[in-house]
Write a structure and sequence with these properties.
about 0% strand, mainly alpha, 7 helices, about 140 residues
């Protein structure tokens, strides 16, 4: 850091736009400064790993979330994380963890919604009678 300060001299006032994290990286920060000047000290755009799902696959998953599950052999009203993990694994050979699939869903503009259970064997008339009886006891 002293090395960079000595090189900057009177221009040290301009440091407020740079992160100290980059300046403390020795010798990387000083090498970037020597090659590119002050611009070399700015944080560079993320250079992380490439995403496993390309744009075409992401669009396919986005349309999939709007389609009926019965077409794909699932007996549910909405997609769940584990079902989507299974579908992606079968079709794209990509394995996601449960926590990460919800990040993918969120990045596609969807949010997690908990489904409400519907039981086909229930009798609505009996439920109405029960609700009325419950109201009388309360």
């Amino acid at each position: 850091m002293r090395y960079i300060r000595s090189l900057l001299g009177s221009r040290a006032v301009n440091w407020k736009n740079f992160t100290i994290r980059v300046l403390n990286k020795s010798p990387t920060g000083s090498h970037r400064f020597e090659k590119e000047g002050l611009e070399g000290l700015r944080d560079k755009k993320g250079r992380g790993s490439t995403p496993r799902l390309n744009d075409d696959k992401r669009k396919r998953i986005g349309t999939l979330l709007n389609e009926s599950l019965e077409e794909y052999g699932y007996n549910s009203a909405t997609w769940t994380g584990p079902m989507l993990i299974e579908w992606i694994g079968k079709n794209f050979s990509i394995i996601y963890k449960k926590a990460q699939i919800y990040n993918v869903i969120k990045s596609l503009g969807y949010s997690y919604q908990k489904g409400r259970g519907i039981f086909p064997e229930t009798d609505e008339q009996e439920q109405a009678v029960f609700k009325e009886a419950l109201k009388k006891t309360i």
